[in-house]
Amino acid sequence: MCGIVGYIGNGNVYDILINGLKRLEYRGYDSAGIALVSESGDLNVYKTVGKVSNLENFCAGKNTDAKLGIAHTRWATHGEPCDNNAHPHFSEDGNLAIVHNGTIENYQLLKDALSEHGCKFYTETDTEVLVQLIEYIKNENKCELIDAVRSALKQVIGAYAIAVVEKNNPNQIIAARKSSPLVVGIGEDEVFLGSDGTPFVEYTKDVVYVKDEEIVIIRRGEPLKLVDFDNKESKVNVDRLQLSISQLEKGGYPHFMLKEIFEQPITLTDCIRGRVVNAGEHVMLNGVFSNIDKFKEVNRIIIVACGTSWHASLLGKSLIQDMCQIAVEVEYASEFRYSNPVITDKDIVIAVSQSGETADTLAAIQIARQKGAFVYGISNVVGSSIPRETDSGTYIHVGPEIGVASTKAFTGQVMVFTMLALSVAKIKNTLSDETIRTLVNWILKIPSLVTETLNLDDQIKRLSLIYTYARNFMYLGRGYSYPVALEGALKLKEISYIHAEGYPAAEMKHGPIALIDSEMPTVIIAPKDHLYEKIVSNVQQIKSRGGSIIAIVTKGDTVIKELADHVLEVPEVPECLTPIITSIPLQLLSYYIAVNRGKDVDMPRNLAKSVTVE
Ligand code: M6R
């Protein structure tokens, strides 16, 4: 959560920072601010509640001349979103300004100690405490900013990516990270900072991924320097940023979410590319292939994830159990990390995260590693923390996902799980070559079948008008369709703010059926699979209680068509591949309902794309 940007160079500092903030708005958008240091050493800070566009309006006509600057877009953790709590924060003497992504857990303790020394606080934030601490150390010890930052960070417990600038110094930015992402972009005579590479992708592709407990010293005209808290210098490793500017634009769509839904035939093709081998005989993921023994001998797989990635993980469980006969458990990363899990070195832990930065998932990885498990990551963002913290893994390769509601990342994750299960089945010989070949052929057809499914767009747009003002929704599915129901409900609630529950269809009769009446529409995911007959009974149970039904069915279905109020027909695929197809109409339905309700689809309230706090 929160996005930070920094720039030092000869370009237009203000424009670069504002554009950078707009790219990072997906990380938080309740307030934004900017600190600029001019050639003569003036430190100007402008900040305001709301989105970056508000900040731009606020800055109009103000002095924005600068030689360097830092900026922030906020997702509030300490203190309500308001002008005062917006970043950057000043030290008391006004000489330092800081931007921060993360949370300082021991801020109250530090605040009390500083108060005893006479420090006054003007905001409710944890961040202000850090900048006051840096100033206090600097003034007490009469030391350089870098030494004060090092010393302050030694006292801090928590997660942070920070950037600090000082008045009268238009030539230096000090930055640091622990458990929150920070990337440095190195251009010619200019250096950029970002929570990821998006703010500076058009300027440079040379990047340094800052490691935990590293401090970055950026000085005009000097090479970038990295030191640890004890001032020990480390090597600067320059990577290439795998991102293009066109991937960050809406490409004619009104929202990123709609663009990302429609991109899925391409993103699934990219996800599969290079992984189908031997002329379509089987698939092989490199991460599995280079760890054959681990997967052959594995006792149990535990998958950890959050949100949509957790739903994809439930499907991963079914895929791996069905194809590889390995016991699989799926845990919320946030629960797993505090559950004292029993893990041995015979277990594999798979961590799934689109962003690769989710704090709970990162913490779960650390615990799994401490307990000796082999940890495998499934992520989208190249160079993010999770791929770097895991022993091996697979990228889903679906390109940047900007809409806060995950769509193409979900189908990419499910596709990777399908390929992972087939790779392991090949190694363990748990599926016949014939079955593997048949499924691989289906995998290759999936992108065009997704295109066919997207043709439901118009029908769904019209359907959405009927349900725009529903106050509650039930989503039901069984087997492979149960996680799809959970995901459908999550999509609807997060962008339209309609209460929606996902349930295994057969569980309904144990309680939730009490909610069914004419006011409670049910979305039922009922493709032709081995549980089809069972779900027909569930449809009948809802109908006989006056509930209206939107059913996702296989093309040519006649039985549910008779019972349901509306049917959305999707192409027939093998059962294990149905989730990729059936989730598409649910994405569109939630999108159109949210648009009809006038909601900010790409930036829903209270949410952020990358959840880097607990
Ligand atoms: O980046 P991650 O996959 O680790 O993120 C996990 C969740 O925060 C994320 O999936 C969230 O639930 C999405 N907003 C869902 O659309």
Descriptive overview:
The chain has 614 residues and is an alpha/beta fold. Helices cover 37% and strands 23% of the residues. It has an 8-stranded antiparallel beta sheet with strand order 3-2-4-1-10-9-11-15, with helices on one face. The longest helix is centred in the last third of the chain and has 22 residues, at 433-454. The termini are close together. The mean pLDDT is 95. 5-amino-5-deoxy-1-O-phosphono-D-mannitol (M6R) binds at residues 306-309, 353-355, 358, 361, 404-406, 490, 494, 607, 610-611. 5-amino-5-deoxy-1-O-phosphono-D-mannitol binds at residues 306-309, 353-355, 358, 361, 404-406, 490, 494, 607, 610-611.
Specify Rg, calculated over alpha carbons.
26 Å
**How confident is the prediction overall: mean pLDDT?**
95
**What portion of residues belong to β-strands?**
15-25%
Question: SS-based structural class?
Answer: alpha/beta
Give the strand order of the largest sheet, numbering strands 1, 2, ... along the chain. Answer: 3-2-4-1-10-9-11-15
Main sheet, how many strands, which sense, barrel?
Answer: 8 strands, antiparallel
Please mark out the parts with pLDDT under 50 across 5 or more consecutive residues, or reply none.
none
Brief summary of the model shown:
This protein is of the alpha/beta class and 614 residues long. Strand 25 (522-526), helix 18 and strand 26 form a beta-alpha-beta unit. Helix 3 packs across helix 4, helix 15 packs parallel to helix 20 and helix 16 (457-467) crosses helix 20 (578-596).
